[in-house]
Amino acid sequence: xxxxTDRAEQVKRLQRREGWRRRLPLVPALLFTIVVTQVPFILSxxxxxxxxxxxxxxxxxxxxxxxxxxxxxxxxxxxxxWTSVWMTVxxxxxxxxxxxxxxxxxxRKFFGxxxxxxxxxxxxxxxxxxxxxxxxxxxxxxxxxxxxxxxDSLGFERIEFVTRWPLxxxxxxxxxxxTPFMMLIVLAGLQGQDQxxxxxxxxxxxxxxxxxxxxxxxxxxxxxxxxxxLGSIYLIQVFDYVDVITGGGPDSTNVPYFVFQRSIGGGWxxxxxxxxxxxxxxxxxxxxxxxxxxxxxxxxxxxx
Amino acid sequence: MEVGKKRAVSFLxxxxxxxxxxxxxxxxxxxxxxxxxxxxxxxxxxKLVFDPTFDRFDEVTSQTQGLLGFRExxxxxxxxxxxxxxxxxxxxxxxxxxxxxxxxxxxxxxLFFFISTKFLPVVAAILPLWIIARELDLLNTRxxxxxxxxxxxxxxxxWMLRSFFSEVPKExxxxxxxxGAKLRGQITSVILxxxxxxxxxxxxxxxxxxxxxxxxxxxxxxxxxxxxxxxxTSNVSTRGNFLAxxxxxxxxxxxxxxxxxxxxxxRMIRGLSMGAIK
Lengths: 304, 278
What we know:
The structure holds two protein chains of two kinds.
Chain A lengths: L1 H22 L3 H21 L2 E2 L9 E2 L3 H8 L1 H32 L6 H13 L2 H13 L5 H8 L7 H4 L1 H26 L3 H9 L4 H28 L4 H6 L9 H8 L7 H30 L5
Antiparallel strand pairs in A: 1-2
Helix pairs in contact in A: 4-9, 4-11, 4-13, 5-9, 6-9, 9-11, 10-11, 11-14, 13-14
Chain B lengths: L1 H34 L3 H4 L12 H7 L8 H31 L6 H13 L3 H13 L6 H24 L4 H9 L4 H30 L2 H6 L7 H6 L9 H21 L1 H8 L6
Helix pairs in contact in B: 1-12, 3-12, 4-7, 4-9, 5-7, 7-9, 8-9, 9-12, 9-13
C-alpha cells in the first residue's frame, strides 16, 4: 500500500521534474521580456495617474484619473488621435492595395522577374529616417524636388507638398516603404496556392476573373489579414517620419509624436504624457485582439 | 491570333512591372546619384549629367571637433546592433527549443505572450525607460540601446525560430537519441545544421531592425552613443545647401542593410510574416 503511494509520488515527482526541465530553457527569455517590456508599462500606468513635471523638478502628486479627464477636453490631443487614425488606416489600406496589385503582376514569368522584385523590395530596406529626408528634400521640395520639376515641365504651378498636405506627404512615404512588404506577403500567398484547384477550375472553363474572385482571393485572406495586422501594429507607432518630414504641427503630429513633445521633447509633463501613451496602448489592444485571432487561425491544427 | 494576343498582353504586363519597379526605385537611385554631385548641381533643377565627385563622401565622413562623427556613430551602431543580435539569439534559441522540439504544456500561450509584447507600443514604455535609464546613469550609453534592441527583437526571433525549429523531423532526433547522442550532440549534429539558414535569416532581420531604429536612440542617446540614424539627421543644416551632403550620408547609412536585404530576400519574407506563413 505505502509502496504504491511511494511509487505514485515518485512518478509525479519525475513528471514535475520533466516539466521543469522542459520549461527551463524558456525562463531567461521570458524573464528578460517581462522585465524590459512589462515593468515599464506598469510604471507608465502609475505615472498616468499623477501630476509630475520633471524639468524643473517638481514633486509627484497622485491625482487619480484627472489626466484622462483632461485629455478628453484637449483639442490638440484629439487632433493627434485623428491624425494617428488617418495615417495608420490610409497607409495600411493603400499599401495593401498597391502591394496586392504588384504581387499579381509579379506572380507570372517575364523577362527580368528577379531583378524587378529586387528593385521593388528595396524601399522597405531603407532606413525610415533616410526615406523621410530623401522624399522631403528631393521629391517633394518645391525648388529642387523631382515631383515639382515634373509639375513645372508639364506647365503646372510648383507646390510645397509638405506644408500644403503634411499628412498626405507622410502617408506617401509610408506607402512607398510598406507596399513592398505587403507585396511580399501577398506573393507568398499567391505562390502557396493549391494549383490543382486552379487547374480543375480552368478545365471546367471558369473565366480568369471568376477564378480570381472565387478561388484566389478567399485563399489569400489569411495573408491579407496578416498584412493588415503587422502593418497597423508598426504604423500606429510611427515617429521617425513625423520627426524628419514635418517635425510636428497640425495635421502631422500623431499620438506618439505628441507624447514626445509633451515629455522628453520639451514639455517634461511625464504624468500627462503617460496618459496619452496609454491611449495608444488601448488602440493597440483593440488591433491585437483582432490580430491574435488571425494568428491563432494560422496556427490552428499545427502540432509541434 | 488568340496566342498572339495573349503574348502581347503578357509582354505589356511585363513592361508595366518594369515601369512600376523603376518608379519605386527612383528615389533611391536619385539619392545615390545626388551623393556624387557638387552642392550646386544638386540644388537646382534635376540634372542627370554632371561631373561625379567623391568629395561629399569625404566631407560627411571627416571629423569635426565637438560634432557627432561618422566613425563614432558607425561604431556605436555596430556595437549596439551586433551585441543585441547575439543576445537575442542566445535567449531565443533555447526558448524556441522549448516551444518546438520538446514543447512545454502550454506552448501556444507562451508564444502568444511573446508576440503580444510586440503589440505594446514603445511609446507607452519610453517615459519609465527614460527615468530608469537616468537613475542608473545609462542615458547616452551604448548599453541602454543594447538592452532595448534585444527586447525589441526577441519576440520576433522567438516566433521565427520556433517555426524553423518545428520543421526539424522528430524521427531524426529520436534516431540520434537511440544512437546515444546526448542533448549537446543532438543539437550540434541534428538540429543546428537544419535550422542554420533560418537562424541566419532571423539574425539578419534583427540586424536590419536594430540598424534602422531611431525612436529609442533619439530619446535615450541624443548626445553620446548616438547611432547612424541620428548621424544622418545631423547632416541637415538650416544654413547653406546640404542636399548633396545629405544624399552621400544617406547612401552610406543605408548601404549595409540594403546589401544584406538583397542577399537574403527570399528568406526574409518568411521572417517578415513572422514565420506564421510557410
